[in-house]
Design goal:
The complex is a heterodimer.
Chain A: E1 4-6, E2 11-14, E3 19-25, E4 32-38, E5 45-51, E6 54-58, E7 61-66, E8 71-76, E9 85-92, E10 101-102, E11 106-111
Parallel strand pairs in A: 2-11
Antiparallel strand pairs in A: 1-3, 3-8, 4-5, 4-9, 6-7, 7-8, 9-10, 9-11
Chain B: E1 5-7, E2 10-13, E3 19-24, E4 31-38, E5 42-50, E6 53-56, E7 65-71, E8 74-79, E9 88-95, E10 103-104, E11 108-112
Parallel strand pairs in B: 2-11
Antiparallel strand pairs in B: 1-3, 3-8, 4-5, 4-9, 5-6, 7-8, 9-10, 9-11
The chains are: A mainly beta, B mainly beta.
Chain lengths: 112, 113
């Protein structure tokens, strides 16, 4: 079993839809949870960061962490064509900013 | 700030040749990471440095891969000899101690024929 599992999709939704992206993990030592967004032929960029369990909201984006279920989610409200990208979850058991374990990424396409 | 700079952006080489990838981290950052991304395996950490010192190289696939960081503003990832299975996008990223953000470069797309 891989440490981090993420459905690669692709996921296609119409503009304005609510999108739910998810990852599961097996290592209970993970404490730092991140979502990176990667546009085609670009490097990943940090979108959301959460420490331990709970929710975090930033504009149209909400990140949720459920450590008891080893399950993290990213919700995108009012999705826009500019949200079309690959979303990678990442996590670490140590200080944020050091070694990260990434999911394979989910490719999202938002049509106008 | 110019961000993380990687060169070359694209590299096509033949099996058995030496390949050197280069990275300039963001000025002032003290962590530098090398990742490899493929469709099959996703984004994998190869090695990372703190203050120019290699901290964890457990992700380096084999002895054909080596990485150096001679100073705070430059790092190289070398593959010698290269093989077709090394074809991937190689990313360099940097971060500042205590920060939750790794800043990625644009990547080097390597094709080994």
């Amino acid at each position: 079993q891989k440490e981090v599992e993420q459905d690669p999709g692709p996921l296609s939704v119409p503009e304005g839809a609510i999108v739910s992206l998810n990852c599961t993990y097996s290592n209970s030592a993970f404490q730092y949870f991140m979502w990176y967004r990667q546009y085609s032929r670009k490097g990943p960029e940090l979108l959301m960061y959460t420490y331990s369990s709970g929710n975090k909201e930033d504009g149209r984006f909400t990140a949720q962490v459920d450590k008891s279920s080893k399950y993290i989610s990213l919700f995108i409200r009012d999705s826009q064509p500019s949200d079309s990208a690959t979303y990678l979850c990442a996590m670490s058991g140590r200080q944020a900013g050091t070694a990260l374990i990434f999911g394979k990424g989910t490719t999202l396409s938002v049509s106008s | 700030d110019a961000g993380v700079i990687q060169s070359p952006r694209h590299e096509v080489t033949e099996m058995g040749q030496e390949v050197t990838l280069r990275c300039k981290p963001i000025s002032g950052h003290d962590y530098l990471f090398w990742y490899r991304q493929t469709m099959m395996r996703g984004l994998e950490l190869l090695i990372y440095f703190n203050n120019n010192v290699p901290i964890d190289d457990s992700g380096m696939p084999e002895d054909r891969f080596s990485a150096k960081m001679p100073n705070a503003s430059f790092s190289t990832l070398k593959i010698q000899p290269s093989e077709p299975r090394d074809s991937a996008v190689y990313f360099c990223a940097s971060s500042l101690r205590g920060s939750d953000t790794q800043y990625f470069g644009p990547g080097t797309r390597l094709t080994v024929l």
